[in-house]
Every structure is written in structure tokens, then in C-alpha cells.
Amino acid sequence: MTEKSQVALSPTAHLYQRWFGPLLRNDEGFDAEQLTQIALAVLGQVSRRREWPFLSGLLSDMAKDLQRLDLRLEQRLFGCCFPNPIGLAAGFDKNGIAAGIWDRFGFGFAELGTVTFNAQEGNPRPRLFRLAAEQAALNRMGFNNKGARVMYRTLEQQALLPRGQRLFPIGINLGKSRITPLELASNDYFASLELLAPFADYVVLNVSSPNTPGLRDLQQPRQLRLLVERLRGLDGCPPLLVKIAPDLKDREIDDLARLATDESLEGIIAVNTSLNRLGLENRVLPQTGRALEEESGGLSGTPLCDRALEVLKRLRAIVGSSIPLVGVGGISSSKDAWERITAGASLVQLYTGWIFQGPDLVPRISEGILMQLEKHGFRHISEAVGSEVPWT
After folding, report:
1. Into how many domains does the chain fold?
2. Tens of pLDDT, residues 84-133
3. Fewest CB atoms less than 10 Å from the CB: which of 100, 165, 316, 383?
4. Domain range holding 150?
5. Is 366 a catalytic site residue?
6. Which of 209, 300, 366, 382 is labelled catalytic?
């Protein structure tokens, strides 16, 4: 019996499975990117009008379905209060159009972006592919977004509470514009940061996406150090985190961990999507007729789970408890989330697993973590972080 089959679906999740479930069970059919855009367009309208009486009532009902409020799950990190450790990963709400309502889905925080200073179309379509049987996805989006100026106006229109006053933290994930030469990358990141800092409880430097040429070169310690020092020069700079790739060699992971400590970065997010095909090299995409080993783009979802956990453990071995870690990549169950937490992650993020399994994944994970805390005699989630206690 699966974790999902042990509990009845909430009304919200039942609607999701009824309307989206059939579309997500097949690789082909409704285009994955178009489906995402339709869903986000609706959510964006709802977020801007969330105080309207009818919509406010619907959102309150959804929050009752999906939120699990428990003091044992609360943490204070980066100067922010996180009501629970489960966040929406960057990549879904690229332009921040639904920033005002992600907490209603049960998330303890949300990361918007990746946003670049200049608007850009991204790579040619098709560029997002479902791998339904594997609960995975291949994407080569290329930081498609409307740019930092549009995100500023979008967030302003949603009348969010000021930075530092929200009980639901919002992170903003920054990337380099494709048209910006690598040697000018710090200027590009700085321009976005300067504009969006008032909205960000924390900021993530995305130097690990596989879909922007040369971007991963910024993971080299010298390049990353220069970037961090440049951004720290901004008055009122929010807490800075860095997001790293799963494809780094052990030595490279160690070097980045030491750099994060030396530069007093507020956190490390592990990991981004992978260029490794993780045993799916011969898996054919029906849309293109080619095997994954012939396709460009980053792999996400369940196949990434083991590697993401390995990277997290290696980071923890270097930084200890001095820097909070955020685990992401292939988390699709309470057990996956618990293993990241006990390996050293203070927070976890969902994306691909949440899309395939639906809104109930968030409360299921919260309930699973609480169950494990009780089983192991932990009074608070902070006691479980890095404890290496197994799932039972």
C-alpha cells in the first residue's frame, strides 16, 4: 500500500486528480508547458483578487484542506519564520504571479523565479517533457521569464506584506540573462537584486541551471566569491543562498561548501536538475522519438532522489550545522522528505513530485514528519535535522 492510498483525498486534491490526473498519466497529450501556463494564469488572477469575498472563502477552505499548523514544524531561519519546512521550489512560478496564495496550498514558503534582469523567451519549444511512468520531467526551458522589472510590478500589484513581516517567507531565485557575457554576470545579478530586494525574504543565486550556456562556470569558487562579494555590497541585501548542481564532483562540492562557510552565505540549496540521465539513457521521448541520452536539458523528479540525497550528505559533512541546507530534487513522499531532514536539511522543496501527485503531497509530508518526530521522541523538527535517524 502506498503512502497516498492510506489517506482519503482532500476535496482540493480530489478536484486536482479529477481534472489533471488523466493528463499527467501520459507522456503525450496536453503539452506540459501549456498546461502549466494555464494553471498559473488562473492562479495569478486568484492571487491578485484573493481578498474578494467569494475567492477569499474558497482560499480559506483550501487552506483548511492543505495546511497543517503545528509549532513543532516552525523554524526561524535567515531571519524569517517558516511555519513548516516544505516549500515550493523555483521554476514553477517564474514571474511571481501567484506569490500571494502559495501558503493556501500548505507550503511553508515559496521560491519565485528563476528571474533574469532582462526578459527572455528561453529555448525553442518543445522544451518541457513529462516522463509519467518515472514521475519525472525533462526541461530545457532556458530561464524563460518576463524579467525583473515585470516581476517587480507583479509583486507590487499583489500588495504583499513587507519583507520581514510575512509569516510565509518568499524567496526570489536570480539567474543570469542570456545576453549578458559571463564576465559581466555580477552586474546582471546585482541589477535584479537591487530591484527585487524589497520583496525577498531571501535570495537564491542560481548558478547551476544546465540550460543557460556557461552558467555553471559561476559555481567555480573564484567566480562565485566575486559574485557574492558584489551582491553583498547592496544596502539592505537580503540573506543570500546558492543553488548547486547535482553533477558536481565530490571535490567541487567540498570546495563550494567551504566557500559558503568562508563567505558566510546564509544557506545552500541542493540540488538543481541533472544532466546525468540517471539510468534513463535509453528512455525514448514520444514527442521527439529520441532517447534521453540524445536530448538536452535537465532531469528532475524521482530519478534524481538518490543523487540529491548524496550531495546533501556531503555538504552536511563539510558545513555541519553552521549553514542551513535546503533539500530539493526527487522528493515525492514523507519518507523522502524525512531522509533529507535527518541528513541535514532544515527545509525541503517540491516541484515535479507535487505536480504529479497533487496538492495532498504537502499535508501528507507534514503529517509524516510529525509522525516521525513522535516515534523518535523529538520535540521539535530542529532536533531531527542532521540526526541521521531512519524512517520507521
Report:
1. 1
2. 999 999 999 999 999 999 999 999 999 999 999 999 999 999 999 999 99
3. 165
4. 14-384
5. no
6. 209
